[in-house]
Q: What sequence folds into this?
């Protein structure tokens, strides 16, 4: 019975573990699919944002190049006649801006600047006279001065010396009538204007956008920086190199944390512009994607955790209920006085052991034990002392049963039964005598008074083959043998012969510790040793 309910608890544990693992697996798969979908959608958005940024910057540069081309043409025409005066240059720049203001706001492109061959600011479209500023260190000037074949140059993002705004420049060279380098005309492109348009195209403002010219200089950043970025940023240099190594002009990539310059994992979408050669990319860190993932899947995560907790609590309750059921069944099969099995448990276990013995063809023996004169003992010493005696006898019976399958129970009142599987008659006699001897040597001290020794009458019934008789028949034979022992003077062991072999049950008076066996069966010393072997 206990084994079956232990199996029930094991099945509950297995079922709960399987249910929780199944739920966790489904939860993990759902989160994995959601994560992969987020990555796929995010990389698609990053490529779209890079394409949109590239298109916007290309359109802005094309419009700026038209303004510069017009300004350059007029300035070179003026140079053919005489050297340009600051006032004359200012008027030309202002007229060009006014001509293009029909289609473009002057604020969209900032100021038009004219630098002479030495990089000095001669004129600008915004004010006159212009404050003389040395801009000879600017890339958009130096690159055109040092390479006469270049038609334009893009300067890096920086704080403008003229306005203080964050701008980058598109410039074109000016030439004298003889083709010599005469200076540079440049237009400022306001980053705030561009990023304001870019912001409208972003998906939740999770991305960071950067545009770099072919030389690796940053010409646009979003979100706008507080100060101009440096060209030697290791992350930008690594990303620029990876994009240049990629064969596709538009694609996405994942850069793992630990790559040179990248302490964090980054997802990037990029596009290379075929006209101006700059590269636009939009990026988002894995940490931001994780925050976005949690915000989109918090309901799934919370509901799954609640389901796991609910299933865990449910199976915990079932497990505890099974444990309580097992305890209740144990209590139902346990004698509360002696804390050994009761008659119900013995009957169930006897049937099981009997079937096993019949199937294997092994012998089986049964002891029926009765405490002598127990009613008089109770009357003389009281029921409390009688209860102590019952507990002590039960404990000595248990201690005398040495094999794991040997069982004992309280049959009722002062009667006990022990069943001994795989035990022959002569071996059962050894066990019975051991029990009687230990009980007879037991002493009970009640309030300083020693109680007289307790004796037992034991009846033994054995079968060399369990299939030759029944469990009920064996119990009946042992009971009759015990009654015969009491009738013959008590404090002794009496053996009943096997019914099938001889229908007569023969006992005769024996002394204390003496045994009577039929058909020449004697409990020799050698037979006693075999019983005590495991």
A:
């Amino acid at each position: 019975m206990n084994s079956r309910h232990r199996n029930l608890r094991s099945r509950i544990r297995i079922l709960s573990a399987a249910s929780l693992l199944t739920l966790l697996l489904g939860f993990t798969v759902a989160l994995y699919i959601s994560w992969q979908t987020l990555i796929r959608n995010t990389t698609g958005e990053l490529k779209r944002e890079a394409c949109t940024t590239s298109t916007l910057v290309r359109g802005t540069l094309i419009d700026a190049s038209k303004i510069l081309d017009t300004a350059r043409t007029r300035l070179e025409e003026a140079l053919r006649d005489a050297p340009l005066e600051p006032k004359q240059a200012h008027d030309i720049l202002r007229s060009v801006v006014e001509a293009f203001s029909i289609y473009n706001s002057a604020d969209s492109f900032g100021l038009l600047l004219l630098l002479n061959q030495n990089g000095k600011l001669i004129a600008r479209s915004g004010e006159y006279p212009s404050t003389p500023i040395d801009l000879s260190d600017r890339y958009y000037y130096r690159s055109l001065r040092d390479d006469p074949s270049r038609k334009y140059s893009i300067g890096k993002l920086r704080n403008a010396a003229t306005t203080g705004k964050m701008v980058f420049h598109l410039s074109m060279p000016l030439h004298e009538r003889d083709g010599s380098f005469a200076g540079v005309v440049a237009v400022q492109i306001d980053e705030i204007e561009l990023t304001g348009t870019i912001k409208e195209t972003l998906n939740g403002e999770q991305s960071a956008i950067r545009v770099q010219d072919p030389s690796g200089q940053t010409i646009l950043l979003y979100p706008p920086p507080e100060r101009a970025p440096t060209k030697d940023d290791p992350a930008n240099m690594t990303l620029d190199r990876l994009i240049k190594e990629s064969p596709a002009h538009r694609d996405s990539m994942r850069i793992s944390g630990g790559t040179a310059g990248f302490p964090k994992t980054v997802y990037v979408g990029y596009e290379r512009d075929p006209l101006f050669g700059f590269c636009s990319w939009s990026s988002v860190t894995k940490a931001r994607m994780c925050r976005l993932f949690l915000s989109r899947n918090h309901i799934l995560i919370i509901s799954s955790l609640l389901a796991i907790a609910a299933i865990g609590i449910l199976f915990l309750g079932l497990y505890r209920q099974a444990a309580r059921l097992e305890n209740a069944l144990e209590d139902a099969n346990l004698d509360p006085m002696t804390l050994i099995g009761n008659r119900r448990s013995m009957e169930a276990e006897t049937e099981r052991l009997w079937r096993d013995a019949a199937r294997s063809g092994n012998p089986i023996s049964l002891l029926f034990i009765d405490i002598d004169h127990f009613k008089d003992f109770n009357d003389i010493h009281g029921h409390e002392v009688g209860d102590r005696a019952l507990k002590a006898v039960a404990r000595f019976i248990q201690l005398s049963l040495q094999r794991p399958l040997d069982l004992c129970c309280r049959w009722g009142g002062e009667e006990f039964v022990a069943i001994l599987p795989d035990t022959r008659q002569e071996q059962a006699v050894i066990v019975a005598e051991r029990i009687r001897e230990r009980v007879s040597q037991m002493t009970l001290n009640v309030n300083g008074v020693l109680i007289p020794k307790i004796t037992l009458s034991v009846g033994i019934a054995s079968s060399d083959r369990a299939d030759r008789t029944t469990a009920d028949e064996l119990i009946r034979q042992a009971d009759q043998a015990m009654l015969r022992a009491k009738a013959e003077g008590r404090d002794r062991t009496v053996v009943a012969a096997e019914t099938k072999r001889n229908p007569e049950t023969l006992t005769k008076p024996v002394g204390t510790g003496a045994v009577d066996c039929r058909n020449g069966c004697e409990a020799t010393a050698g037979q006693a040793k075999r019983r005590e072997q495991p």
Remarks:
- The two ends are 25 Å apart (CA to CA).
